[in-house]
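In response to a reviewer's request, we include the raw inputs and outputs for one of the modeled complexes. The two entities were modeled together in a single run.
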Amino acid sequence: MLNLSSFVQKAQQLLDPNQGLNITDSDRNPSKASLFQAQFRLPASQHPLYEITAELTIPLANATQGDRDRERGYQYAGKLHLSESYLCFSTTPSSFVQSASTPTSSVFTGQTHGGGPSGNGFTFPLSSIRRVERLHSQNFQFALAISTWNGISQEAAKDKDRKDLREQRITIQLASSRQACERFCDGLKKGLRTNVGNVTKLKKVMSECYSEYLLRPEEQKSATPPDAGLGLLFRYPGDPKKLRDRAKMRLWAEYLRDNGRNATLIRQPTFHKLIRVGLPNRLRGEIWELTSGSLYLRLENPTLYADTLAKHSGMESLAIDEIEKDLNRSLPEYPGFQSEEGIGRLRRVLTAYSWVNADVGYCQAMNIVVAALLIYMSEAQAFFLLSALCDRLVPGYYSTTMYGTLLDQKVFESLVEKTMPILWEHLVKSDVQLSVVSLPWFLSLYINSMPLVFAFRVLDVFFVEGPKVLFQVGLAILRINGEELLDATDDGAFISVLKSYFSRLDESAHPKSENPKLRAVTRFQELMVVAFKEFAGITHNSITELRLKNKDAVLNNIESFAKRTAIRNLGPDSKLLNADELAALYDRFYGVLYERQQRDHIIKQEQARRAKNNRSRAAVEAHDDHSIEKGRVGLGPSTSLMDYDAFREFLAGMSKWAISDAPSTPRRETLGDRQSGFYSSFRRSDAALSPWGAGPEPANHEFLQRLFRKWDVGSASALTLQNVVSGMARIKGKRDIMGTINYFFELHDDDGDGKVDREGILRMSEALLFLSRRGLEGTLSPPSSSLALSTDNVNGGSEAPGQSVNERFLGSVSAFIRRCFEYADPDHPQNQNAIQDVQERLDAQKLEDIADEELADPDAFAIGDDDDDDDLLTMESPAESPKTAAIRPDKRFNEPPELELNSSSAGARADGDDMSTRRRVSKAQSEKANAALDPSNPLHITLPTFRMVVLADELLEQFFESSFPTSFHIIEGLGSSATPTSASSLTTFSSLGIGAGRAVNAALGGTAVTPAGGRGLRGVLDNIVTDGMRVAAEVRRRMEEAQRELEKNALPGQRNDDEDDEDEDDVGIGRPSGAGKPGGVYSGDAERRSVRSSDRDLLTGADAEASDANAAAAGRASGSLEVGSGGSGGNGGNEPGKGAGKVVGVEFDG
Amino acid sequence: MADSGAPKPSSSVKLVLLGEAAVGKSSLVLRFVNNDFQENKEPTIGAAFLTQKCNLPTRTIKFEIWDTAGQERFASLAPMYYRNAQAALVVYDLTKPTSLIKAKHWVAELQRQASPGIVIALVGNKLDLTNDSAGGDGEGAGGGDGEDARKVTTEEAKSYAEEEGLLFFETSAKTGYNVTEVFTAIANAIPETSLKTARGPGASSAAARTEEQRVNLNGPRDPNAKEGCAC
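The model returned the following structure tokens for the whole complex.
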């Protein structure tokens, strides 16, 4: 499926070069649907379903004006579009069908000649269509007559009045093949049927429109008019006489009567002319709502505003605090906002919006814009218009980073540079930054720059024609004041020139002119003319292009600022990491979040597209995404929280061990260049559909979950950057081994009581194996043994020192488990009644061992001489009666460590008689030690014990000192060079289908042996790793099993059965080894016993290794032991190297 | 300097105000520029620009004041305003500890990103709300009876200011206490050599300016400290 879709995408790239540049449905590569929505200002729920070339005929005649020539009338050629709930006609020849190229879909972005993106035509909600008739016509024309619910709110009126109401009826001739026409009509029929239910909704919304009141017959006007803003209560700004408000109102009444009102309005050229001369006060709100498309938002969910307020009533938020601060300072000069009425409305609209769009919340300047809207429209209307502004008209202006504002400033600057090069040069020369002047213009839509009456005139046009108007007006301001601005040489002078210009907008533009007509032209009129005539070339298209061009630079700027700030604001923990590390962590953190979000988006889109292809309507409707790009820091941190999956991906970007062992892991090629361009690197579409993108699949190990929980300080199931930095600081920051050891311990100390139980010990060892399975990093002192090995094997060729380190590490881990159990403290003091002499012997031995070890931390010695010691003894107690049936189940638990030990025994025997004698001596003791595995004896290790056990082993020590911290490659990440091990070295894992525990269990099911398939030493290593994992899991499984049995039947007779079972197991396990198969770790029963008894020897050996004296010899011994586990059985000679060599031989033979 | 026409050399200084929202940045400026105080000031969109002259005995300083918006999200616009600023007023609210933290962030930002040698003054505003508004002869001066809303001690802020080499003042824009002093102190602290003349040459002289600054740093820097500002 993935292949198919990427193929499809590739094909599309070939067809349309614009596609694939950016795979998201963003402004960079808008989808057909979003272009369609933008052109007709429709909600995001609407998609272009059908379109057809058509000719619209609007009859001149209407009831009020009597019958005129029906033949004539207005005719428009254009396209008819059908979406889920809208029928739109536009003279703009844009097309949104799948096959349409991007340019034809976005044709409206060019010159619209004042008509706005949707040109002349109409945008009818299907619910406003009353009847569609197929007209019988002579010449095979396919014509439809559409009558609407125009004036729907007066439906209830008496029949007598009905005749005043002219039925709106238009004719549309479809100009296409009969088949296409039929298809379109079928779609229309279906749409009409599904939208029947919305008629009441429509009726309610329409009744709140002032036009309904305006067009009502005189005798019905007694009813209270719909809310047309605070202006009805507090007067509208400006002098109505000067504004010629009455005349405008009459013109509008006529237009609305002839061409339909609100939802059923038909746009003809007069409509746009009427808007250009300024809207009348009482209709202003409604026309804004209509032209901006916020009416359709309201239509979609008429009660959203009231519902939102009700739902959040009484709730607090940061945005509300911010809003409260500004309520008294929003257009304070307007009387409406000196009253509780006006303040209350403003508060409610801003608050409701901050709830529905929490990403934006509240931004200063919104208060001014909303205050202005509220003068002309109701609260609900203002609420939806604010949505339309934030989502479509001025996207990103009010976001938390205000990237839209900054971007448009850049766009504006480049337009000035292009259109007024002399002025631009002057600005550069005198070091005046244009945006300090122009930013407030855009941000407040000129409302607090110009006198209100003029700002509203700008808004009138802005809502029809879109954001380009802001640029055109801005350029015109500079052009008109060009001369004076050229004299200004600093910010101050620059600002004062413009300030005085704005204050004289109502004056004559040509006061000294002879021509009275020219004298009558105000500066504002001049401004409008210059803006729309001289800068007619500034189209939506050119703005879009410039936005795209500047977007990355602006976002990068914001991001570097945000990064700087964020890093500076990190808590004291961050001091433990250096600046580069912090910067890299920051990049990785947000990089992962961004990529994930983008992928998520694409996958959703892909699903939606598939659903659409399957004609599953429901799914299409569910696909209700905003076309606003999200996720980049610069766009406003829509996410600054990292969930567990993101965390895994985050770790996989910098730690080898965090990459999954899944076989088909693609390389993370992008990693190298991610440093430079996090966001730009994510343009490739092919890999994007995998849930992990181009990167490798991250592992999902219990250790990762622990780490996540540990870092998740607030238990929010998500990490903040602060969490990540603090977490990382604890691992990488201090660079001291004790810190790391403590940290690792805490990580496994679930309840924080300073104890880790049996389960925890096994988890720890699993974690150690997990972390080391791709080899250890950092500075590891190569022990002489490995040197010896490598020199010995020069001829063998295939062995590298690193491998032997890893092999040794396995030994270390197995020793770790054993020692943990050995030194663990029992939880139950009742076990105290133990046989003293055995205890003492063990004790003595242990002390001896401990003395042999070089322990860096004196605490670790505590085990020998404090309470721990007593605990230790008691722990041994149940085991001290090995011959009683009672401890038989223990044997089962003995096995796993035995397996480990087994391997070592092979080599250990090679060490000669003196070893074997010691072995004999310690046999009994080791059995006691292994009794620690008895689940009926809960036990735990404490931090000091853990430390001691870790420090008892050179490799573990090095692991905590260096490899673990350095395994986080914060800065450099995992270059492609660092990961080649992933696929090859871990094939054993993947063939087992691993997540450590799971696979191990699987392996335990029957044949415990994985054939290594003759892959040489590498295969051996894999086997060892697998074995190690298996060991840990087997221990656990058996423990659980035994626990269950113990719980079920504590009868003595049962125990014999157990014994039998175990013998069978023994045989079964022993078989492979007997057959000499590679990887035959499990030797026969007898051998196993001896192995078990060699526990102690190994420990001593390892201890000796830790001490410098015997390091070489012991190290060599342990080295060969581990290799022996690969399957050679007891063949190892005195020369460990030779032993290893033989193993290789066996492997190849096998 | 170049401006030989005037008896006293006049030079303009670009000053930017930064700080958390509603700490009283605009009020400080309004007090300084118009000697006025408004309870409900329109929030600053982007930044407001005002000018005020400050007469020192040897020269006249014309402050070009950029009063920035305090809301958090406007922070990303700030670089636009502190660009080339020679002085900065970082304001916090004495009654709001978080505002001092924010102020510290601004100081760090300025020290790293603004023009080198920028004179920064740390100003704790709203002294009228505390009990020790000694200088404020207005309503806030009531010693023990009113509740002390002060949450940031003078010592804490002062020691921080000394550490970072900032000028430090506690003011009340409402009563006017210490407001002009802040601006006078800044005017005095600006090295004479870093001043551009009123109708300063543009970018070309910027390099020269820093050059001069470097050369003259050891000269008599501000022999005339503690001189009033006639405004």
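As requested, we also summarize the result in words. Residues 97-113 of chain B form the longest helix (17 residues). Confidence is low (pLDDT under 50) at residues 1-5, 135-145, 197-231 of chain B.
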